[in-house]
Design a protein that fits this description.
- By secondary structure, the chain is α/β, with parallel strands linked by helices.
- It folds into 2 domains: 199 residues, Rossmann fold (3-Layer(aba) Sandwich); 124 residues, Rossmann fold, CATH 3.40.50.
- 34% of the residues lie in helices and 18% in strands.
- A 7-stranded mixed beta sheet has the order 3-2-4-5-7-6-12, with helices on both faces. It has a 5-stranded mixed beta sheet with strand order 9-11-10-13-14, sandwiched between helices.
- β13, α10 and β14 form a beta-alpha-beta unit.
- α1 runs parallel beside α7, α3 packs parallel to α4 and α9 crosses α10.
- It is globular.
- The chain starts with a strand and ends with a helix.
Amino acid sequence: MARMTMIEAIRDAHMLAMEADDDVVVMGEDVGYFGGVFRCTAGLQKRFGVQRCFDTPISELGIVGTAVGMAAFGLKPVVEIQFADYMYPAYDQIVSEAARLRYRSAGEFTCPMVVRMPTGGGIFGAQTHSQSPEALFTHVAGLKTVVPSNPQDAKGLLLAAINDPDPVIFLEPKRLYNGPFDGHFDRPSQSWGKHPLGEVETGYYQTPLGKANIVREGSAATLLAYGTMVHVALAAVEESGVDVEVIDLRTLLPLDLETIAESVSRTGRCIVLHEATLTSGFGAEVTALIQGECFYSLEAPVLRVAGWDTPYPHAQEWDYFPGPERVKRAIATVMEG
């Protein structure tokens, strides 16, 4: 084991994947010489050369479209979009080309590519650097969508994504890049290097896609979260004094419904927590699935706690995010149901 930040774990995953397979290439804006805007690809170009880690023009549509062609040809491109907010010009290539290539070619072509994107807020990035667009990808058949919450998972999930034969959207919570926090956004971050969640296995390993992780066992209710919100959930549960089970979804698509249903059927109560806006957010899909799978076990309606249904409010960032206080109120409400 070694202590790493999430940035270091992601960089290590790139390094190991490129060492293991010559077909893995890394591409995107500033990923080569500079090493990425968040330094996740630092040192890759120097080690593997400009043919395997290279900078692209500032054109998300062109980057992803080129990567789709490379993947169809047999390479395994790992694309970095500097911020998830910038992916919209490339959305057509992701949805209409990458996600459908296997199916419209009857399996003659596949698209083994990963699109990495820093996602979410917490760094005062305002509306064009803080969006959480995961629901736009979980709606698309043919895509897998992953959101890690700690360095160990970030490394293992990324290696599994690179090894997957189909396209994977890999969303990295930028609030967690350099360290965890105590669940309150307005408090300074600790270093992952001093935090038990910063322990990362050395060497090559894969964390299976489609498998959730129970990060805190409990019997009174189930709290489902992913990415940054896992830490908010843990803080809220500790402060509430209620014995709530916390599940880190890790992979949104495919979703580990088996683990979710087992927990909710046992506790009878459920809260779904995410940073993105409430309306048509991923929590709505999870709530519908729970309603169908666990209806006769529910002791109260499933509650959702999410971001405001507004454009991203830079001046009110800490209020926009679902913090521990909002989650604690939800826990109290679901326990009264």
